[in-house]
Amino acid sequence: FKGDDTCEYLLSSGRFLGEKVWQPHSCMMHKYKNSEAKNCLIDKHIVFLGDSRIRQLFYSFIKIINPQVREEGNKHGNIPFEDKSASIKVDFLWYPEVNGSMKQRIKSWTEGSVAKPHIIVAGAATWSIKIHNGSNEALTQYKINITSIAPLLEKLAKSSDVYWVLQDPVYEDMLSESRKMITNEKIDAYNEAAVRILNSSSRNSKAKVKVFSVSKLIAQETIMKSSDGLHLPESSRDTNAMILMNVYCNKIMKPIDGSCCQPQPPLTLIQKLAFCFFTLSIIGYLIISLIHRNNYRKNKSCADLEIGEEKKPAINTPNVSTLEMLLHSFCKLGLIMTYFYLCDRANLFMKENKFYTHSSFFIPIVYILVLGVFYTENTKETKVLNREQTDEWKGWMQLVILIYHISGASTFLPVYMHIRVLVAAYLFQTGYGHFSYFWIKGDFGVYRVCQVLFRLNFLVVVLCIVMDRPYQFYYFVPLVTVWFMIIYATLAIWPQIVQKKANGNCLWHFGLLLKLICLLACIYFLSYSQGAFEKMFSFWPLSKCFELNGNVYEWWFRWKLDRYVVFHGMLFAFIYLALQKHQMISEGKGDPLFSNRVSNVLLFISIVSFMTYSIWASSCKNKTECNELHPSVSVVQILAFILIRNIPGYVRSVYSSFFAWFGKISLELFICQYHIWLAADTKGILVLIPGYPMFNVIVSTFIFVCVAHEISQITNDLAQIVVPKDNSTLLKRLLCIAGFFSGLLLFSAMQDQSRH
């Protein structure tokens, strides 16, 4: 309600998260690397004009461009800097007082005799206080001088970005005797004069000198760490320089995690068409609902006045047609997608950076584990990895992953490595579940494939359209989709080996193992042949699905990170079902899985293996090296968990209904978090209620979970309509879907062409 000018917020307000992380009010700051800074400032001339405090800011700014720069040169003189590789010039001009000399320099830029800088950062006052011993006459002269300079700055602001830096407070106890006259009271008087005069001047001009007042807030928190009571510590001036970089560069570079100063992106052609479709769906549903309601009222019987009896209605409930169900689903989906767009594409709601602390991650983990244990119930069946148990497993893993994302725990390597195991466990379940289905049922029909692909991809396809994001951006869905197709292809190609066939002849088991060995060989080859992998997915239209930022490297990295775990899941399913078939395990209620002796030994080995992996993951020092080992060793902790969870009969016979409920909507939770719980495509946090972080998390979480649950129901309803069991009808629907995606590719190509 205060407006969407996030630049104003960035320059004037914010708070510290911890000791060094600055959080602007309502938006997110990007931390620029030197390569990004060079790309933004290429062929630019920047001038810092002022005293020693501005000189400090100058050095922090050029260190973003070149971190090797040293603070050398004449402290009370001009200091030039040039980066020839990007043609960037940054100059510090020594003007410690707002006087005639400073006015003459600014005037030379306005008269056209000298090339205007693209960015001008100016500010001074402490020297005037010091030289004139804090006299009131000096303040009066300052007001006169800045009044004469203000119109010139406004004139410059029409073609350049002009910033006036307000004076930071001082730490009076640390000031030397020669600076004792520089008091915070005097500084406030000078700042008040500068703000009043500059704002008064800007009212009469369309251009505006931007007042850089946020430095004051930063200094109030950090000036105690100053070496002399006057100059800011290095971390604080680095923050100021990064704020300047964000103010100028965010609108040019458009970083995902830099929402400050970024304008709202324009609607694409595909987004406009989606908006029209959902609007028509809502109108269509309302019309059909009104027609059905009127028909229902007409059919409702009236009281028989002659005999004083009321006949029962001929129709108890109005019949819901397929069209009405379809429109109803799209109506709800349209409203939900509007909320998605408003949260993460419009500048309606605030966004904040993540900030990791151990308590922000581990306290919610303990809380949900206590809740999960509280909701313990008996399972309907006591088989290994029964439906309730796998739902529970997915549920608690998803909740841990959500807490990991919102707390920013990826910066803490031991947590990151354990979360990698949870993602691997999802893929393990993919291998286990789909292999078990095809092996037991022997159903390789098109209906089964289409049902799975629709349920996996429906939400992501809609989000790609509405949020203007590539398919690969939601990396987990492409991952499970491709692995499902690999599992299907492995088992469906000739010879089709299923349990029924293998029971008749044991040699078929060896045939299946041979298929799995071939699959493992292919995975191994592709994992060490990046070129072959990238060529495979670089052909159009596959490239449209798997490219991110113009290449398929991200897809290669995600696939390679968990390349063996699906195979491990398939192999585990094969061994488990073979043991089950030959009655080598006991799955009765309360019975241990094996004999007491074997169960105890396996349980001990599993606990040791689980703890060993955790110790190794916690001792990781290098993310790259640990990621290299992860694909081969993640299965150790997954198998250890399965055995610990299933060997004791009592543990196998109970499950947490709390976790299982979340497990049933785990895919929707994982995808929805990108835009309506987190913000800026997971880089930040959505702020619905500013100023109350805990209350904000409670409200946004409630809405987020409700939306995920609703989308799960919508997906299930639409799956029954879009993917019917009748093969001829299904074929027609598939042709319609193929036409839809062809149109999508056409419009996407048109968008890309217009952007270029």
From TrEMBL:
Domain annotation Cas1p 10 TM acyl transferase: ranges: 253-734
Domain of life assignment: Eukaryota
Top enzyme category: transferase
Cross-referenced Pfam families: Cas1_AcylT (PF07779), NXPE4_C (PF24536)
Entry's Gene Ontology BP terms: carbohydrate metabolic process
InterPro entries: Cas1_AcylTrans_dom (IPR012419), NXPE4_C (IPR057106)
GO molecular function, one term: N-acetylneuraminate 9-O-acetyltransferase activity
Topology relative to the membrane: Multi-pass membrane protein
Transmembrane segments: 269-291, 355-375, 395-416, 446-466, 473-495, 507-526, 561-579, 599-617, 659-680, 692-711, 731-750
Keywords: Acyltransferase, Glycoprotein, Golgi apparatus, Membrane, Transferase, Transmembrane, Transmembrane helix
Catalysis performed (reactions): CMP-N-acetyl-beta-neuraminate + acetyl-CoA = CMP-N-acetyl-9-O-acetyl-beta-neuraminate + CoA; CMP-N-acetyl-beta-neuraminate + acetyl-CoA = CMP-N-acetyl-7-O-acetyl-beta-neuraminate + CoA; a ganglioside GD3 (d18:1(4E)) + acetyl-CoA = a ganglioside Ac-O-7-GD3(d18:1(4E)) + CoA
Listed EC numbers: 2.3.1.45
Subcellular location(s) of the protein: Golgi apparatus membrane
One CC-aspect GO term: Golgi membrane
Span of domain NXPE C-terminal: 22-92
Family note: Belongs to the PC-esterase family. CASD1 subfamily.
Designated name of the protein: N-acetylneuraminate (7)9-O-acetyltransferase
